[in-house]
Amino acid sequence: MRIAVLAVAAALCGLAACSSNATPAPSAPLATPKTVDDVTGIWRSVHQNVLELRKNGTFVLITTVANAMSGNYTLSGDSVTFFDTRGCGSVQGTYRIQASPKGRIELSQPNDTCAPRKLGLSDPFVYAQPDFS
Q1: Residue 68, SS3?
Q2: Which of 43, 78, 126 is nearest to 51 (CA)?
Q3: pLDDT category of residue 123 using cuts at 50, 70 and 90
Q4: CATH number of 31-129
Q5: CB proximity list for 22: less than 8 A, separation 6 or greater
Q6: What is the DSSP string of 39-61?
Q7: Pairing mode, if any, of strands 93-100 and 125-129?
Q8: Coil, strand, or helix at residue 74?
Q9: How many CB atoms lie within 10 A of CB 129?
Q10: Contact at 8 Å (CB) between 130 and 41?
Q11: What is the pLDDT of residues 3-15, one digit of tens each?
Q12: What are phi and psi of 107, to 5 degrees?
């Protein structure tokens, strides 16, 4: 019985020695998006908010605190402006955008009086899947 236990222990130690201790590669640094392709896709936040940015300039924002919102956006340099948002009327919201393509997006320095949209966009987002538009 002791021999079997020792054999199992030795096998487990051998497996542990063969396992990889490699750390995951760090995510790419955030930068100003160069094109709309750098931000299109479906993004998720830690609070389960979902932001879909489509190549055609439309978006959908689903949050846990408000009804789903949709509308249009434009990307210009390090700014993104959301407008014609269902639930926000004619109020536009402009944010500084920094992204690592297919990695993460951060929207900061909001100039937005639409509280539900501003709250839904307040967390960093990580890439979830590609845009299907």
Answers
A1: coil
A2: 43
A3: very high
A4: 2.40.128.370
A5: none
A6: T-EEEEETT--EEEE-TTSEEEE
A7: unpaired
A8: strand
A9: 11
A10: yes
A11: 654 455 455 445 4
A12: -110, 125
Region of residue 65 (phi > 0: left; psi between -120 and 50: alpha; otherwise: beta):
alpha
- Contact between 83 and 92 under an 8 Å Cβ cutoff? The reply is yes
Helices marked H in 1-133: 2-18, 115-120
pTM of the model: 0.75
Go through 19-58 and write b for each residue having 16 or more CB atoms within 10 A of its CB, e for each that does not: eeeeeeeeeeeeeebeebebbbbbbbbeeebbbbbbeeee
Tokens 């900061």 appear where? Answer: 108
42, 128 contact by CB (below 8 A): yes
**How many Å apart are CA 53 and CA 42, to the nearest integer?**
7
* DSSP for residue 96: E
CA 41, 76, 123, 63 dihedral sign is negative
HSE, CB side, 13 Å, CA atoms: give it for residue 106.
9
DSSP state of 11: H
- pLDDT, tens digit (0-9, with 9 covering 90-100), for 33-78: 888 999 999 999 998 999 999 999 999 999 988 889 999 999 999 9
